[in-house]
């Protein structure tokens, strides 16, 4: 398609667009009978396209669903809307707070691990107060205990850890010999 | 409306023009803006938007699918998805869109279009609009005239149903939902110029179909 043809096609399309604007506006206002309204556009447009447009305006009408369907879907949407509001309501009163922000030295740092020597462990843990916790029927005291136990550095090193460290030290000593 | 630009206009600030320069402010052009904001605050308020656009979405689905039950199904999915996705909706009206522009409507029809496309893909055959559909529109009180009108409507529906998908959708949005070219461009994801050409060619194809009488078969 040459540029000239393309321009001609665009001009025709624009003409059709203007005609349809006028036609549909006339239909909306209940005025401008078909073929009498858009004036010069009406004369310039291809008569067959104009007749087709008039016919489609008449035959492609808007249809409305049944009242039963409308109300059923309205109920379904309302249920979905309520479900969307529930999560916010359940957690809205809750807030995340840092729980016992404190730092403890690491117990018995690995003598072979220079990176860990002299370091401390950050025990600050976020805790959700209210909201989800209360709705889950967990007591605040219980949650606090769990958080404290999880964050508290162990005072005694488990026997398995001690055995592993001893084996590692022995292995290193053998390699040096 | 095709381009994702929030409408802005230049206005002199209320506090005067101390700097002597107009300050740009956001112009809220979307006619559904108030309803959308209410629905965002309280999802139960979505009902107002639903009532406003139910017939339009349903008509679009009905003309595309040619079956009441399938149209109801597509309509239901469209509105449920729109409600769930409403927090992500962005108003993108431009001054050029005019006062009656609704980017919410365009956004809703984008969802409807995708839903309908999935539904059409999901079924085995793609019947064009049926005679029952045409009968719904013909005047039920005028029996003799109704029969003629029904035949003519059915022919027009068949002619539209034979069009390629993009042309068919453009015609339905233009005639049934009375959308502007800019709105159709937004729904179909095309430029306004491309939509104009699409509608023009679709109309000529329907005209040929109806003039040759093949639309009557």
Protein model, in words:
The complex is a heterodimer of chains A (177) and B (217). With 177 residues, chain A is mostly helical. Chain A has a domain at 3-59. Helix content of chain A is 59%, strand content 9%. Chain A has a two-stranded antiparallel ribbon. In chain A, strands 2-3 form a two-stranded antiparallel ribbon. In chain A, α1 packs parallel to α3. Chain A is elongated and about 105 Å long. Helix content of chain B is 61%, strand content 4%. Chain B has helices at 33-41, 46-65, 68-85, 103-122, 131-137, 143-161, 165-175, 181-188, 192-212; strands at 8-11, 23-26. In chain B, strands 1-2 form a two-stranded antiparallel sheet. At the A-B interface, α1, α3 and α4 of A face α2, α3, α5, α6 and α7 of B.
Largest interface: A-B, 41 and 54 residues
Structural class of chain B: mainly alpha
In terms of per-residue confidence, which ranges of chain A show pLDDT below 50 for 5 or more consecutive residues?
31-35, 126-137
Largest sheet of chain A: 2 strands, antiparallel
Residue runs with pLDDT of under 50 for 5 or more positions of chain B:
1-28
User: How do the strands of the widest beta sheet of chain A line up side by side?
Assistant: 1-4
Overall, the morphology of chain A is elongated
Q: Which radius of gyration of chain B do the C-alpha atoms yield?
A: 20 Å
How many strands appear in the DSSP assignment of chain A? 4
Shape annotation of chain B: globular
Tell me the number of helical segments of chain B per DSSP (H or I, 4 or more residues long): 9
Q: First CA to last CA of chain B: what distance?
A: 38 Å
User: Over all CA atoms, what is the radius of gyration of chain A?
Assistant: 39 Å
Tell me which oligomeric state these chains represent: heterodimer
Query: Mean of the pLDDT scores of chain B?
Result: 77
């Amino acid at each position: 398609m040459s540029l000239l043809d393309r321009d001609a096609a665009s001009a025709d399309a624009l003409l059709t667009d203007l005609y349809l604007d006028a036609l549909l506006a006339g239909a909306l206002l209940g005025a401008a009978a078909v073929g009498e309204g858009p004036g010069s556009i009406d004369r310039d447009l291809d008569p067959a396209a104009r007749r087709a447009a008039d016919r489609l305006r008449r035959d492609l009408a808007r249809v409305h669903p049944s009242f039963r369907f409308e109300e059923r879907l309205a109920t379904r949407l309302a249920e979905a809307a309520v479900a969307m509001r529930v999560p916010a309501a359940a957690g809205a009163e809750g807030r995340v707070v840092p729980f016992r922000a404190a730092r403890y030295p690491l117990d018995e740092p690995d003598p072979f691990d220079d990176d860990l020597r002299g370091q401390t462990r950050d025990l600050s843990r976020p805790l959700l107060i209210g909201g989800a916790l209360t709705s889950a029927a967990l007591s605040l005291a219980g949650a606090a205990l769990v958080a404290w136990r999880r964050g508290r550095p162990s005072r005694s090193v488990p026997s398995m850890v001690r055995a592993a460290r001893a084996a590692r030290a022995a292995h290193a000593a053998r390699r040096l010999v | 409306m095709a381009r994702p630009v929030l409408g802005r206009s230049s206005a002199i600030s209320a506090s005067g023009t101390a700097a002597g320069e107009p300050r740009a402010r956001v112009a809220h052009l979307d006619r559904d803006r108030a309803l959308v904001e209410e629905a965002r605050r309280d999802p139960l308020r979505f009902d107002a938007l639903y009532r406003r656009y139910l017939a339009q979405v349903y008509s679009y689905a009905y003309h595309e699918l040619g079956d009441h039950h399938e149209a109801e199904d597509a309509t239901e999915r469209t509105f449920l998805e729109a409600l769930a996705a409403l927090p992500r909706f962005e108003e993108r009206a431009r001054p050029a869109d005019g006062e009656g522009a609704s980017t919410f409507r365009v956004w809703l029809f984008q969802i409807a279009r995708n839903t309908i496309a999935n539904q059409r893909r999901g079924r085995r055959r793609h019947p064009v609009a049926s005679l029952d559909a045409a009968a719904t529109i013909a005047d039920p009180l005028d029996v003799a005239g109704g029969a003629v009108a029904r035949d003519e409507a059915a022919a027009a529906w068949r002619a539209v149903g034979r069009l390629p998908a993009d042309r068919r959708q453009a015609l339905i949005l233009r005639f049934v939902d009375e959308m502007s070219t800019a709105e159709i461009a937004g729904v179909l994801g095309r430029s306004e110029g491309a939509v104009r050409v699409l509608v023009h060619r679709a109309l000529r194809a329907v005209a040929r179909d109806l003039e040759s009488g093949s639309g009557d078969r």
